[in-house]
Amino acid sequence: MSSAIIARFDRIGDCMRGACAVQDGALRSVMQFSADEDFAKHLDVQDPFRSFREQFHLPLGKNGKPLIYFAGNSLGLMPKSAKQIVEQELHDWAMLGVNAHLDAKTPWYSYHETVRDSSARLVGAKPNEVICMNSLTVNLHLMMATFYHPTKSRFKILMEDPAFPSDTYAIKTQIVHHGLNPKDSLLLASPRQGEFIVQTDAILDLIERHRDELAVVLIGGVNFFTGQLFDIPTITAAAQKHGITVGVDLAHTIGNVRLSLHDWNVDFAVWCSYKYLNAGPGAVAGAFVHERHASNTELPRLAGWFGNDPNTRFRMHLEPEFIPVPSADGWQVSNPPILAMAPLRASLAIFDEAGGMEPLREKSIRLTSYLQFLLESERDKRSKQRYTVITPREMNERGCQLSIQAHEYPQELFNKLEAFGVICDFREPNVIRVAPTPLYNTFHEVWRFAKILTQ
Fold it and tell me: What angle do CA 289, 294, 299 make, to 5 degrees?
């Protein structure tokens, strides 16, 4: 290798060991990349998180070698420790039966409390603002039951376009549930003609123009299609200035970027845990309720027995009266789903071991920046552009997903990627989403993917 490349290794290696600025905007000046394969390999040698890859099961190809798994935005990989934790719960069930609720190694009655603190750290919340329960869409309905109470003048809901379909279905049915028409009550913030990104100014303009009609702003923290990271604190402040409630769907955000929901004053948020949180298919989801609401036991809600005051929860011989827990627990309708929650414990322990999202975000930024560099370097060598990255170029405006618009034979291109051992995902009509995640993906995998895509 040339001395220039070696110098780049040393410089980036210092950053990956924490010896340079960590602010997103400051990283660009120190990230100088090379398309040389040895450069990618050396980045992996310098990576402080390289050993974390060994804590996950990696899908294997027919040749017995790990596939390039860039689908953590759809389903994260399985932590190896998850099996032991699940087997412990099965063992306690077999040996203790109903007594496992109190006598299991990790008592089932309070099982949800075991994931509270780590989840709160990942979303930037206080522990009493977080509850892990249900699925994302169920939690969204529960939040809307509390926070969406349309009046004659204030009845509209603002979302980005495109929002994840499940969110759209949920919000439209919430509107109909209140006897309103989605055509009149759902307001969409769409990209400008010929663009894919929803500009923050466009969202703020819609909030300002409809400030007297809007009841709720519901935004996806990171857009599922483009990978755009929205400016949550700015949008929240703009809406709340006019008394508008703000909710955030964190499905593609939690475990991906740094969050400060409490300090940003977000009213509520919901998320799933099977994507970047690596908790497995059907794993328990989560919800955030800001403490100014969580402590308000007078707020309306759809109640269930585990949201009730533990001191009266089991007084079933008396006429039951719902007394909500003065925290996010007050929205918990059912007892903890043990087998759906156990793998989440395994994954959250890994995030805690890694030091949380701040150092992981640093590696994530380098992975996506390196991938974009490689794709643009290869594309510029060709007379005809075959693809375009539609995810924002600015590092503080995206997570670890890059969405690649294929201009020629997109489905065939995706099929060829699979044939060459790449697992990613395809969104109609012509977008391939790839998500190199910092816990288990490598720089050399990024280099290999770029070569496969371009050649």
Answer: 110
Query: pLDDT truncated to tens, each residue of the chain (455 aa)?
Result: 444 444 444 554 454 444 333 344 444 445 789 999 999 999 999 999 999 999 999 999 999 999 999 999 999 999 999 999 999 999 999 999 999 999 999 999 999 999 999 999 999 999 999 999 999 999 999 999 999 999 999 999 999 999 999 999 999 999 999 999 999 999 999 999 999 999 999 999 999 999 999 999 999 999 999 999 999 999 999 999 999 999 999 999 999 999 999 999 999 999 999 999 999 999 999 999 999 999 999 999 999 989 998 888 877 767 678 999 999 999 999 999 999 999 999 999 999 999 999 999 999 999 999 999 999 886 665 545 789 999 999 999 999 999 999 999 999 999 999 999 999 999 999 999 999 999 999 999 999 999 999 88
Query: What is the pTM for the complete model shown?
Result: 0.92
Kindly list the structural domains of the chain, giving each domain's residue range(s) and its CATH number in brackets, ordered by start: 3-66+355-454 (3.90.1150.10), 86-353 (3.40.640.10)
